[in-house]
Amino acid sequence: MAPTPIISVHDVCKYYGNFTALEGISFDIKPGEIFVLLGPSGCGKSTLLRIIAGLETESKGDVVIDGTDMLGIPANKRPVNMVFQSYAVFPHMSVEANVAYGLKLERLPKAEIKAKVAEALEQVHLSQFSHRMPDQLSGGQRQRVALARALVKRPQVLLLDEPLSALDAKLRDAMRLELVKLQESVGVSFVMVTHDQSEAMAMADRIAVLKDGKLRQLDSPTALYKNPCDQFVADFIGRINMFDVSSHTRNGDAVQFDTKTLGTVTLPASLMPANTRNLAIAVRPERVRVGLEQPAAEMIAVTGTLGDVAFQGDSSLVEIILDGERSITALATEAQAETLMALEIGTQVYANWQPKDMLVLPENASE
Ligand SMILES: Nc1ncnc2c1ncn2[C@@H]1O[C@H](COP(=O)(O)OP(=O)(O)O)[C@@H](O)[C@H]1O
Ligand SMILES: [Mg+2]
Fold this sequence. Notes:
Blueprint: E1 7-16, E2 19-29, E3 34-38, H1 45-53, E4 60-65, E5 68-69, E6 80-83, H2 95-105, H3 110-123, H4 139-151, E7 157-161, H5 169-186, E8 189-194, H6 197-203, E9 206-211, E10 214-219, H7 221-226, H8 231-236, E11 241-251, E12 254-259, E13 263-268, E14 280-283, E15 289-291, E16 300-311, E17 315-321, E18 327-333, H9 334-341, E19 348-353, E20 359-361
Helix pairs in contact: 2-3, 2-4, 3-4
């Protein structure tokens, strides 16, 4: 039997006047998972997180946390705690005093506060900095003070709104791992908002992809990457080469797709999605080979000229220019890239891949 969800969101809608910020959002969050709300700026992520936190009221639908309907339950009575986008800490208070602040407001006994603060600082590896002031800390350490301040209240769920967005790129990468480790050791569920797909992919157990206030797909990072439900999700998660389909014809076990860029492409009918409105066919860059020789007949191939080869360490991104306006991106291994970099830019090449590596995607799976 599936474990009882720690959070259930049922058909939640949020309207601001006649603007719809959220529409029919439903999902269950499992205890102990890192659940990420991902989508472009303005898609409703923070609004949804604030509704779960009780800082905003849903126009319709309901939120159940740990089996209790949250209707009418104020933020400070919910078993959740929020870490805000700008993780402001009190500059005039020591690390310890910052973490103790919320507990002091609750008038807990001194000894209990001391013990809980010590435990929270231990969890975020700041015990030796307890007497420092915030301006004596790095950005990452201040971030951990903010986390300790939320953890000290022992919430069942930590709600994090873009927790890493204020950090510089290198620190952000390190903090991703640290947050995952922290979540594993503390065992609380995380609901995290981000607009950064690589951050979501690196950290999440499951990702809810939102667009214009609607849930497009909810899946594990690998499932989202391998089986995106539509063009929006495919394009938002990772890189992809997408080709619009002008018409398609089913022929037994095969389907013929007419495209401007690739001409007519025949693919197995098993690749067809349930929704076939405004289709595109697509291929991930790591499936695309680039060669000088005409590829075997069973491959899907297109002729172009070699563009930029962008070195990124263990692999390189290769641009194949098709007709001056369109291009295809291939991901080449170190050895392949070395061969390609020896060629002149503008050399004629064949981009090619196997039919089974294509995705067939509607514009919007839920329309
Ligand atoms: N209090 C509000 N009044 C009116 N519109 C709002 C309010 N809060 C958010 N919105 C709008 O709702 C949409 C979603 O906002 P938000 O949840 O903050 O997006 P995200 O966090 O995904 O960037 C945006 O278009 C935003 O302008
Ligand atoms: Mg936001």
